[in-house]
Design goal:
Number of domains: 1
Order of helices and strands: EHEEEEHEEEEHEEEEHEEEH
Distance between the termini: 54 Å
CATH superfamily: 2,3-Dihydroxybiphenyl 1,2-Dioxygenase, domain 1
Helix content: 10-25%
Number of helices: 5
CATH architecture: Roll
Structural class: alpha+beta
Length: about 325
Amino acid sequence: MTHQTAGIHHITAFVRNAQDNVDFYAGVLGLRLVKKTINFDAPEVYHLYFGNENGSPGTAITFFPFEAGRKGQIGGGQVGWTTFVVPVGAIDFWRERLAKLQVSFSEAVRFGETFLQFRDKDGLQLEIVEREQGPQSNWSFGGVPADKAIKGFGGAVLYSVAPHKTMEVLQQVMGLEQVGAEGGLVRFRASGDLGNMIDINAEAMEWGHGGAGTVHHIAWRAQDDEDHLRWRAKVQESGLKPTPVVDRQYFNAIYFREEGGILFEIATDPPGFTRDEPFEALGEKLMLPEWYEPNRVQIEQGLSPIKVRVLKEDQA
């Protein structure tokens, strides 16, 4: 049996201002800030995670807010569009909401589905589509009720500088199935019900460069630590060069760059975000791994305060 990933685990991007980031993803999109921590490789920078009520795999979009970071250029070697999925019948709510909050959007049709396409304050390309698949979110915030809330990822559009190589990795390494092609895009499907539809350009694209408004990496799901090691061996056997397993507190991770230039991660579903704080308090306190705890005061002093707040347009 082919070793298949269930789909996207999380997507991580660069932004500039942490409060703007919170206001957009919690305030506008209604996601829950499920973890407030730091970039373990650059502890002077937040690492913020947003998702459904508990940040389940397949729902978490995460950010590194580099206040003085350069502006990125979206292009080859990146995730081009991050796709969120909402319940069937919720698309009109999101049309009205984006218009009310003065978020410019356009509509696109792809593989028979309608997408609302827009950008966050840093220019990150986002889209919303409605589908039946996937459990509904139980989180409501501000002007977003749970029955209209984002369920998680619908998938992503990958921008590759060598699409035939990227498609080879999606099929032969990650176990995705090719299910369609149209309009210069090829569609692949993973085995799960969230983060499972991946579209990729059929022709090579010009390189982009990293910075605010671009995706740093896309992470794929591994069931557990044992499955994770099987994935690492499979990546290595394919001729790619995975990193050693890295402890990210809320999952274990390996990283590798496929030949189309996109940084892939494979991350374990467990242990999840409640390993160091209770469900009811997720995202409220700055959480540090134990090796940074002795430096808490210094780290907190170097980070701008942030607050999850209801937007004024949603205050009745």
